[in-house]
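Predict the 3D structure for this chain.
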Amino acid sequence: MPAPAPNPPRETQRLQWARSASGQPALGLQRASVDAGFRSYWRTVGETPSRIVMDAPPGVEDAGPWLRVRDLLEAGGVRVPQVLTRDLDLGFLLLEDLGGPTLAQVIDADSADAHFDAAIGQLLRLQAIVPPSELGTFGEALLQRDAGLFEEWFLRRHLGLQLDCDDSDRLELAQRRLMDNALAQPKVLVHRDFMPRNLMPVVPGPAVLDFQDCVRGPIAYDPVSLFKDAFLGWPLARVDGWLRRYHQRASDAGLPVPPLDTFLRDADWMGVQRHLKILGIFARLHHRDGKSHYLADAPRFIGYLDEVLPRHPRLQPLAELLEQRVKPAMQALAAV
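Done. Predicted structure below.
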């Protein structure tokens, strides 16, 4: 009995599927974006209008959660990509093409107010959706995992720091206070990466991308992610103004935001927690996955921390650790 024919290479499968799904036997594909995970996105070439093929290879990526959250968000009025054809067994989806540039690529100092006002509108719709129980909760376990990323990957693996007892105590105290603050906040549906890079400037919109990791979590998480982005920096005074604008609109919409002073503190602390986590993720992408370009933005997060930590004496242990151990280690590494 002859052996079964081996599966064609993934790029061949992808092109064959795209041609069949679109009914265009001569179209081509070109990469549309690079993802930090195993998903990839490809734009069709040779047909009008163009489409996007999402490639989620079975065994390493499951498109099912993405589809379930997409449907949930659409039902709540959030602008998300339209799905034209799907094949979950092969791991391919054919999506509408929302265009080339993301919000991160078109926003500037002059247009930021208008773009962020539109983004807040989408965020308020997202946060008004009741989170289904199967999405999980941004709770103690997830916060502990996020905290571990900073110490394991950024401090130990990337900077080569071995913390002594005093350093470990300072970091643990700060992380515990950050986690307690996050756990005490009102809970809503949280995107977890609601930033300009994951927003597409279309009308109506912006359209929201990369939403498959939604959970039930702290209300301040997504607003601070939007204004203190991994790849774009803004003056602190403008960020504070946008956070106030979000708070007013969220309050008017009936979302469970606390009083303004409490919310601004929560946003600061949530931002600190997120910045530490992202430093760990960027270091992991570099050392484990060979995706080193993310580390170029690490100084941005140290800058965010430098801006905010002086406002909050209860986070002084973290500020001391950064000044005495982390910054000298980063400088030494940069000099190598």
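The radius of gyration is 21 Å.
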